[in-house]
């Protein structure tokens, strides 16, 4: 679909905006209600039309999904990845913007970074903490900023733009329940800032890794392995792990990511069940539930691999690895 753009600069390359829902497309009964709203109500065409400054850009758009991102699922991931891949292959496309909910944005962004990893073009996720009907909605400015970054010569890799900050997908995490500046990245500051329509680059654009390829997440939802996240905490034992091993409905357990304490340490009682899971052929990784800092792999915990990623992105990474083994 092409937007009826009233003004488009001469030879401008195109930016494609893919809508998936989220608070950025949410509506509330009252303009002062930034909590009791329904996400994923407005089409991406309506979001674009609400930002007159976007008329300077040559835009295409497409509604890929319309969901609250807490309900993100494998089918929507497959659909989104396929459409991003399709549009990136178009010579006339300079970059992609994805409007998404904030709740699982860090998971989707990492999936796209690992599967597609564009080395020459940017894929820029954006979102909002307030619904589109809010008196001071943050979505329109975030969308404009995302398109600005996606149009930036030389920009590449998978990023997220919110509150004027550009984050790489690696280590990206939502860190606040209602602040507009709600994202951060473990081990990294923002890649760039967007100020008054200009992009001030602070570090190298992300990406450059060899992508796993779209075939890794081929559209056969039954192939997705079951990978669960469990947490180590005071009083933890192995009951959840044992229950997951015994679970018989749906796909069998293939992997466990443990959000460990501190430097990815595990309660002894939980670790015993995890070791048992390993002997049953389940992949087990441990990361940290702590907000900042790397996991420094130290001894202990036997064969349970220490991973310096957020638990949520580690789960995506493990899913992709197990999908590769399926193939
Ligand atoms: C969602 O993640 O879809 C709802 C919450 C948000 O976008 O902030």
List key phrases describing it:
alpha/beta; four-stranded parallel sheet; disordered N terminus; binds succinic acid
Topology (elements, then pairings):
Layout: E1 14-21, H1 44-49, E2 58-67, H2 74-88, E3 93-99, H3 105-115, E4 122-126, H4 139-150, E5 157-162, E6 165-168, E7 172-174, E8 183-185, E9 192-195, E10 198-201, E11 226-231, H5 239-246, E12 253-260, H6 268-279, E13 283-288, E14 305-306, H7 311-326
Parallel strand pairs: 1-2, 1-3, 3-4, 4-5, 11-12, 12-13, 13-14
Antiparallel strand pairs: 5-6, 6-9, 7-8, 9-10
Helix pairs in contact: 3-7, 5-6
The protein binds succinic acid.
Strand proportion, as a percent range, falls in 15-25%
The coarse overall form would be: globular
The strands making up the biggest β-sheet line up spatially as 2-1-3-4-5-6-9-10
Strand tally is 14
Sheet with the most strands?
8 strands, mixed
Order of helices and strands: EHEHEHEHEEEEEEEHEHEEH
Q: SS-based structural class?
A: alpha/beta
Name the hetero compounds present. Answer: succinic acid
What is the distance, rounded to the nearest whole angstrom, between the alpha carbons of the first and last residues?
35 Å
Describe this structure in words.
With 327 residues, the protein is of the alpha/beta class. 24% of the residues lie in helices and 23% in strands. The protein has seven helices and 14 strands. The chain has helices spanning 44-49, 74-88, 105-115, 139-150, 239-246, 268-279, 311-326, and strands spanning 14-21, 58-67, 93-99, 122-126, 157-162, 165-168, 172-174, 183-185, 192-195, 198-201, 226-231, 253-260, 283-288, 305-306. The strands form three sheets. It has an eight-stranded mixed sheet. A four-stranded parallel sheet has the order 11-12-13-14, with helices on both faces. Strand 4 (122-126), helix 4 and strand 5 form a beta-alpha-beta unit. Helix 3 runs parallel beside helix 7 (311-326) and helix 5 runs parallel beside helix 6 (268-279). It is globular. Residues 1-10 have low confidence and may be disordered. The structure holds succinic acid. The site of succinic acid has 12 residues, from loops. Succinic acid binds at residues 21-23, 39, 68-70, 101-103, 127, 129.
